Amino acid sequence: MDEWTSPDPTRMSLLTIDIQREFQPGFPSGRPENALAVPAAAAVARAFREAERPIIHIVRLYLPDGSNADLCRRSRILSGKPLLLPGSESSQIALELLPHPAIVLDHELLLAGRAQEIGEAEWIIYKPRFGAFYRTPLEEHLRRLGVNTLVITGSNYPNCPRATIYEASERDFRIVAVTDAVSLLDDRGIAELEAIGVLCIPSGEVPDRLLPRR
Q1: How many whole angstroms separate alpha carbon 18 and alpha carbon 80?
Q2: Who's near 162: CB < 8 A, 6+ residues apart?
Q3: Given Cys at both, which of 60, 99, 176, 184 links 156, Cβ 3.0 to 4.6 Å?
Q4: Are the CB atoms for 183 and 36 separated by under 8 Å?
Q5: What was the pLDDT predicted at 28?
Q6: Closest C-alpha to 99, from 66, 70, 121
Q7: CA pair distance 136, 115, nearest whole angstrom
Q8: Distances (CA, A) of 209 to 33, 144, 183, 190
Q9: Distance CA 164, CA 167 (A)
Q10: In terms of C-beta density within 10 A (0-12 exposed, 13-18 middle, 19 or more buried), how is residue 50 classed?
Q11: Mean pLDDT over residues 192-208, rounded?
C-alpha cells in the first residue's frame, strides 16, 4: 500500500454484493461456499453500523421476461426457471446482514434506479449486470457521501465482486477486500487484487485497522 491506495477510514463505505438468499443453501442457486462467507460479512456490517459508517447493499433482480438479465442468464429465465424474481423470498438479502429482520426489498423503487434507505446511513441499490457501477446510481451516491474507499464483501468472487472491484479501481476508489467475507476468493484471486492495489484482509482485522474509535 502507498499514499494512493491506502484506505482512508474517514471516507469509507461498505459494499455488500449479492448476499441474497437465492445464493444460499436451500435455494436453487445456493452454494455452501456462499454460506461460509455470510458470518464474516455480517460481522463487518455490524462493525460499520457501530462506527456510523455508510453501508450499501448491492442486489440483483430479474424480470420474468428476462429483459433486464445478462445474456448468459436469459435462457434459464425464459425456460420457466425464475431467478431472483422481484418480490420473491429468494431475492431478499440474507437476514444476517440486515439491520432489522423485517426489511424487504422495495423492488419497484430499486428497478426504477433509486436507492432504498433501510437505516441510518444504510441503503440498497439494484444493479442489472455483474459490476455494481454499470447503469446504477452507485457512483453518484458515493460521491455525494464523500466516499473514496470501498470495503467489499459478497457472493461470489469470480463474478460480481470481482467485476465491481475493477469498476471501482477504474474510478480511482481505494479498495479493501474482506477475504473471508467474499465467497470463492482464493490465493490466486488475492494475488490478482493485490497487484492492482487492493488491500486484502480478514474480517477480524476490519474494526482495528479500518474503523478506529472516534
Answers
A1: 22
A2: 130, 189
A3: 184
A4: yes
A5: 85
A6: 121
A7: 9
A8: 26, 25, 22, 18
A9: 5
A10: exposed
A11: 97
Distance from C-alpha of 169 to C-alpha of 197, rounded to nearest angstrom: 9
Which residue type, as a one-letter code, is found at position 128?
A: P
Helix (H) or strand (E) holding 14: strand 12-17
**183-204 mean pLDDT:** 98
Q: Would you state the pLDDT for residue 205? A: 97
pLDDT digits (tens, 9 = 90+) for 4-33: 999 999 999 999 999 999 999 999 889 999
The single residue listed with the C-alpha cell 423503487 is 109
CA dist 107 and 116 (Å) reads 9
Give 100-148 as a DSSP string: STT----HHHHHTT-PEEEETTEEEEE-SSSSTTTTSSHHHHHHHHT--
Categorize the per-residue pLDDT at 214 as very low, low, confident or very high, splitting at 50, 70 and 90: low
Residues 165 and 194 sit within 8 Å (Cβ to Cβ): no
Closest to 56 in 3D by CA, of 87, 19, 85: 19
- Averaged pLDDT score across all residues of the chain: 96
Q: Which domains does the chain have, with CATH numbers?
A: 9-210 (3.40.50.850)
pLDDT digits (tens, 9 = 90+) for 89-147: 999 999 999 999 999 999 999 999 999 999 999 999 999 999 999 999 999 999 999 99
Give whole-number Cα distances, 197 to 30, 132, 138, 191, 201, in Å: 31, 19, 21, 10, 13
